[in-house]
Amino acid sequence: MLSQYFGITYSQRIYRKIPKLIELKSEIEKRAYTLAVKKFNEQFYFVLYDVTTLYFETFKSDELRIEGFSKDNKPQQPQVVIGLLVTHSGFPLMYEVFPGNTFEGKTMLPIIEKFISGHKKTKPIIVADAAMLSEERLEELKEKKISYIVGARLANTNLVLVKQIHNRLQDKDGAIVRFPSIHGDLICNFSAKRYKKQLNDLNKQIKKAEEFVAKKSSGKRAKFVKKLSKEAVGLNKALIEKHKLLLGIKGYCTNITESDLSNEETIARYYNLWRIEQSFRMSKSDLQTRPIFHHKEDAIRSHVLICFVALIIEKYLELSTNLSLRKIRDLIWGITETHIQDKLTKKIFIFSSPTNDITSSSLAELAKSWKLLPH
User: Fold this and answer.
1) 145 — alpha (psi -120 to 50), left (phi > 0) or beta?
2) Please, are residues 230 and 222 in contact by the beta-carbon 8 Å criterion?
């Protein structure tokens, strides 16, 4: 990117220095925390956690680079797992790199404990996706008195409770119910918009299952197909009916009492997870974190650290100016300055490209964010 957009070339010496950068990780994370407090007045009542994977342009594995569940759709290539902790507004605070075959549910607690131990006065509520936490992980959070809001896997819930949820919500748009459970409370809400989408998806899955049954296929790729015998397959009607009862319903598990945080606020906090998903999209597309060509562990970890710093800068600019990085780049890219020198007099004439009011005000905000203008 440096060469493509700015004409900056660099020597191999930079690559040789990269592995040393990992020594700065702790200091960078401390400064990220301080910046979030001083610049954005973060209180850390809520923090968001998620994981992604980064693959390598090789098929050679080692203890760190190893095949696992790939979010990049590269299951045959070695990868690493990245766990990222951000504020409710998406500002990055901390990350860790794990071996590529690490179950994502096992990555969260080490980072959360490290964050809390490094900031004794901070005891945030953790918000994470359903895939992140098993019953065992939830129990660990409860034991350590860490508050959480996580997505619930309602499809794994027993049929009796599913029927209770369905009957109490009654397919009423915006309806919310709350049930006590062994892992805190289960909050469920119904959305008419979600219902329409899920009904369409369910009908497609049922049709696919019916085609598998008609062809007497093994049904491995169809969700609602079950084996009746060694040779025969059939529709799993009980599972279909269960999914029909759950159409339009989303669940959330939390150990926070309703008196401390209302059902509506709990659900709203959970939907802030899109901010961390946006951060991962930014790092993979705008910042081009993948693929990785390094093969030594320190170089790999330093590569991820560089990407983390770039993400801090990107989110800092976005939150300071309310402009996306691409918009900022386009604004800057549209401004040119030409220097023409008179060969006789040696006088230099400077011509700048015109800017409209929107561009000027946007650039002024950008300059303010870097304290280049008084404000």
Assistant:
1) left
2) no
Q: Which residues pair with 258 in a beta bridge?
A: none
Cα distance between residue 36 and residue 112, in whole Å: 17
DSSP string, 93-152: EEEEEEETT--GGGTHHHHHHHHHHHSTT--PEEEE-GGG--HHHHHHHHHTT--EEEE-
Which residue, 53, 46, 29, is CA-closest to 104? 53
pTM comes to: 0.79
Phi, psi values for residue 79, rounded to 5°: -150, 170
Residue 352, SS3 per DSSP: strand
Distance CA 265, CA 353 (A): 48
pLDDT at 173: 96
User: By three-state DSSP, how is residue 88 classified?
Assistant: coil
Domain boundaries, the chain: 2-191+250-321, 197-247, 327-369
Beta bridge partners, 47, equal 87, 126
Q: 251 has which bridge partners? A: 188
Pick the CATH number of 2-191+250-321 from 3.40.50, 3.30.1330, 2.60.40, 3.90.350: 3.90.350
Closest residue by Cα to residue 299 from 15, 97, 77, 98 = 15
- The C-alpha atoms of residue 350 and residue 366 are separated, in whole angstroms, by 23
φ/ψ region of 44 (left if φ > 0, alpha if ψ in -120 to 50, else beta) reads left
pLDDT below 70 — which residues of the chain? 1-15, 217-221, 279-292, 355-360, 362-363, 365-375
Containing H/E element for 339? strand 337-341
Candidates 214, 173, 211, 213; CA nearest to 195 is: 173
What residues form DSSP beta bridges with 66?
Answer: 79
| Structure-derived torsion over alpha carbons of residues 9, 11, 13, 16, reported in degrees to the nearest 10 | 80
Q: pLDDT value at position 375?
A: 39
Identify the residue whose tokens are 């129990």: 139
Cβ(267)–Cβ(189) below 8 Å: yes
Q: Environment class of residue 345 by beta-carbon count within 10 Å: exposed (0-12), middle (13-18) or buried (19+)?
A: exposed
